[in-house]
Design a protein that fits this description.
By secondary structure, the chain is an alpha+beta fold. It is about 20% helix and about 35% strand. The strands form two sheets. It has a nine-stranded mixed β-sheet. The protein has a two-stranded antiparallel sheet with strand order 1-2. α1 packs across α3.
Length: about 200
């Protein structure tokens, strides 16, 4: 790994925070303002240098993707690169390139082989009683089935939601676990699928 200059490191941290915590890919002008530059060309050169160093890449839609998270120090610990997806669009594979915002190293103690995993950003407070808060990243093991009591990522009419899975005979119920009593049980019908089971909440990234 080449040694980063102060501005490269500052740019990488800014881009990382935007991707991981805000769910957006910053523009060259955003990077220019973050670095205090007067020219977008100077900021573009810094971004290009990070791409050349394989810390970032540009997706087909021109958005940035984080490839190497340097802010997480897990020396001596075996990790796996897990994709962070902001949403799970209807009809598209979870890990399609256009969905991946960043690649985050996660310990194999959490992301255990040989299963496949993805990270999803939680929204709202419907699961705050079980420690899943707005903005947290949840580690999800990809699978299409679940057992009653597990917390799942479910796709309902094209919208992803995290809820507690309950099955009673032929009826599937998605139960919120929230201090906000405005959240109600969801009884699901045909337009429903399980995308995976939540195995960990990661709020410190």
């Amino acid at each position: 790994m080449e040694k980063l200059t102060e501005n490269q490191l500052k740019a990488l941290r800014y881009i990382r925070n935007a991707l991981v915590h805000e769910g957006r890919s910053p523009s060259v002008r955003d990077v220019m303002e973050a670095l205090g530059y007067n020219s977008p060309n100077s900021a573009a050169l810094v971004v290009d240098s990070l791409i050349h160093m394989r810390l970032l890449r540009r997706r087909k839609d021109r958005k940035l993707q984080l490839l190497n998270d340097m802010d997480i120090d897990r020396v001596g610990e075996r990790t796996r690169e897990i994709p962070l997806v902001g949403t799970v669009p209807c009809g598209l594979p979870v890990l399609a390139e256009e969905n991946v915002e960043a690649m985050i190293p996660i310990s194999e103690k959490l992301a255990r082989p040989p299963y496949e995993y993805f990270l999803l950003r939680a929204h709202g407070d419907s699961m705050n009683e079980v420690g899943i808060n707005d903005g947290d990243l949840v580690l999800v093991r990809q699978q299409s089935t679940a057992t009653s009591g597990e917390h799942v990522v479910a796709l309902i009419d094209g919208e992803a939601t995290i809820k507690e899975f309950r099955q009673q005979k032929d009826v599937v119920i998605l139960k919120p676990r929230s201090t906000n009593k405005a959240h109600k049980l969801i009884i699901v019908a045909d337009a429903f699928s399980v995308q995976g089971v939540v195995v960990a909440t990661i709020s410190g990234l």
